[in-house]
Specification:
The protein is 26% helix and 20% strand. It has helices at residues 13-35, 49-56, 87-94, 116-130, 193-197, 212-220, and strands spanning 6-10, 38-42, 69-73, 75-77, 143-146, 171-177, 185-191, 201-206, 239-245, 259-261. It binds 6-phosphogluconic acid. 6-phosphogluconic acid is lined by residues 43-47, 75, 87, 147-149, 153-156.
Length: 264
């Protein structure tokens, strides 16, 4: 266990995204210096889009050496790569198309092409091979970006999911309910807590009042990871930080010393 998470509350979204972009650039520099590479897993959902756009914009001064990065995803829906719910599509449009990353360094989850179980196994192999660890060993991603759902899920780790307990796997398939889709259950592929908790750094990005109860439950409530899956994210040695806007932080009671507020 790496100690309590760092919690940063930013007054506005602009400063939150600016800080997040700075953290990504710092993680890239530090891991390039230490390990000669930057292996990052991106999250999906709507929250990271402004971060991706900022990172894609050279005029905003957050240089990342994308040419030596390896980009993975924390999770993906088993939908075609141009589908509106594809996490790959979001990152590609908002970031990857604009930066100099060689295609072989973009490690998309191929959930739509294969049986989900096979796609998860293939992604697990790709993670190990890219990060040069032997079969069964756990690779260490340099940075994992995560979001939080109002039910406390993160990546595609949902309440009461067996995926939370899959210590034997880095990547698994899960079925998730998506009421707005047809059919309303979608297969997804997700990193497991084992894979995420081996990362050198994990950064949660959470905005908006709808997330405030989940933020408070995850960070200040009793430990019940089956109910609040984001509590399962507890890196063994790496640093975990939460970047929140004021609305998402509104129900935190004891901010204590762990909190820095905006401006830095
Ligand atoms: C996804 C992620 C999910 C996401 C949260 C927050 O949707 O791809 O699996 O964990 O990060 O649901 O989503 P929003 O950023 O859209 O609120």
């Amino acid at each position: 266990m790496s100690g309590p998470p760092e919690i940063v509350v930013c007054a506005g979204r602009d400063s939150l995204y600016e800080r997040a972009a700075r953290r990504v650039a710092e993680a890239a520099r530090a891991s390039t210096a230490a390990r000669g590479r930057f292996a990052v897993a991106l999250s999906g959902g709507s929250t990271p889009r402004p971060l991706f756009e900022r990172l894609a914009d050279p005029t905003r001064g957050q240089a990342v050496a994308w040419e030596i990065a390896h980009v993975f995803w924390a999770d993906e829906r088993c939908v075609p790569q141009d589908h509106e719910d594809s996490n790959y599509r979001l990152a590609n449009e908002a970031l990857l198309e604009a930066v100099a990353i060689p295609p072989e360094r973009v490690h998309r989850i191929h959930g739509e092409e294969l049986d989900p179980e096979e796609a998860a196994a293939r992604y697990e192999r790709e993670l190990r091979e890219t990060l040069s660890v032997p079969p069964r060993a756990t690779p260490h991603l340099d940075l994992v970006l995560l979001g939080l759902g109002p039910d406390g899920h993160t990546a595609s780790l949902f309440p009461d999911s067996e995926a939370l307990d899959r210590a034997d796997r880095l990547v698994v398939e899960v079925a998730a309910s998506e009421p707005r889709m047809q059919p309303p259950v979608v297969e997804r592929i997700t990193l497991t807590p084992r894979a995420i908790n081996a990362a050198y750094e994990v950064l949660f990005l959470v905005t908006g009042e709808a997330k405030a109860p989940a933020v408070a439950a995850v960070l200040e409530g009793p430990r019940e990871p089956a109910r609040w899956p984001a509590q399962a994210i507890d890196p063994l040695e790496g640093r975990v930080s939460w970047l929140l806007d004021a609305a998402a932080a509104a129900k935190l009671a004891g901010l204590g010393e762990a909190v820095e507020s905006d401006p830095p």
